[in-house]
Amino acid sequence: VSTGNGCGHTLLTPHSGTLSSKNYPGTYPNHTACRWRLRAPPGTSLLLAFGDVDLEPSEHCARSSLLLSDPQAGTAYGPYCRNSVPSTPLLVTNSSSVTVLFNSTSHLSGRGLLLSYATSQHPGTHYTQEHVRASPDHPPTLPMHCSVYCPAGCKDIQGDIWGNPSQGYRDTSVLCKAAVHAGVIADELGGQVTLSREKGITLYESAFANGLHSKRGSLSEKRLIFHKACCLLSPACDDVLEVAAFNASSWWHELDVLGQYRAWVAERAALGTIGHSWAAEPGTEASWLELDLGTRRNVTGIITKGSSEQHDYYVTSYLVSSSRDGKNWRPYRGSGGQEDKLFEGNADSHEEVSNTFIPPIVARYVR
């Protein structure tokens, strides 16, 4: 949990999380405070990674400070500021509960703070620079093949990514943010990421995927390739599924300016259709498009696109539900499981947008 008027981007889960001061990486405000209470499952201990601690220097960090306390062990860490920084970028505690307290008074400069945490039950190395650094100026030094742990909340931290899931990412990309873009982890949970560093390419194309827009980038010496867990077992996990039949709540019967009839029927919803697509009858509410996959399949994601540049229509957001029999429908709630997940769709009529289902949907019908 977090309380106070000095809290910035915060995503806390029982297994990992990311937190920052208000306005980060801009100058943090005067006279604010934030208290974060981190709790891990019983029997585990917390590992805290200091991504950035840039608080204006003062004697005993009186103007601005970061203080961590371990109530179980009665241990305190800090106070920290620019002239009293943590001695190591990774703090390994012996506690499953840690309180993080940030305070500011009047000051002139400072980006504030960016921290992440994970628990001792996560296997592998808990990397610090790749998932929390505020600038991609210093690329990570990784072996050719490795597994790293990314905490929850990497999607909204500062830093850029270049590339896309199919071709890979420039190795100067913020690593865990790129992993969210690639769809190998859900931002709300984080998780273990398997990747390799391969030879760079001349040009990285931008793409919008999983709520993130990557940048178009030029030649790099190395690139990051993320490997999905299913692809380690089967190379077919990203294959396009065949749709046996399309259905819809309604469709638009259009008469154009020349009096010609055009039907925006459900079958025209297939990706790659030339010309106009499917569209619901104008003015209808709760419209839906239904895909019959013919048999029960494992659905790992969806790609959407507008009708075409000629017909400038597109869907900006949508919900997903699935059924195994076509009668009983289950809304998709993602890895959080509390609310129906609203997927971010298209911003124009020509760019493809990808969203990943973590966990996948097992169903015959998808709406």
Automatic annotation (TrEMBL):
In the bilayer, the protein is annotated as: Single-pass type I membrane protein
Which cysteines are disulphide-bonded? 7-34
Q: Does the keyword Signal apply?
A: no
Q: Per the database record, which ranges form the F5/8 type C domain?
A: 231-367
Assign the protein's first listed, main location to one coarse class. membrane
Print the keywords alphabetically.
Disulfide bond, Membrane, Phosphoprotein, Transmembrane, Transmembrane helix
Q: Which InterPro entries match?
A: CUB_dom, FA58C, Galactose-bd-like_sf, LCCL, LCCL_sf, Neuropilin_MCO_CoagFactor, Sperma_CUB_dom_sf
Name a GO CC annotation attached to this entry.
Answer: plasma membrane
Question: Where can this protein be found?
Answer: Membrane
Q: Which GO terms describe its molecular function?
A: signaling receptor activity
Gene3D superfamilies, A to Z: Galactose-binding domain-like, LCCL-like domain, Spermadhesin, CUB domain
Annotated ranges, domain CUB: 7-120
**Residue span(s) of domain LCCL:** 148-224
Q: List the Pfam families.
A: CUB, F5_F8_type_C, LCCL
Protein name according to UniProt: DCBD1 protein
Gene from which the chain derives: Dcbld1
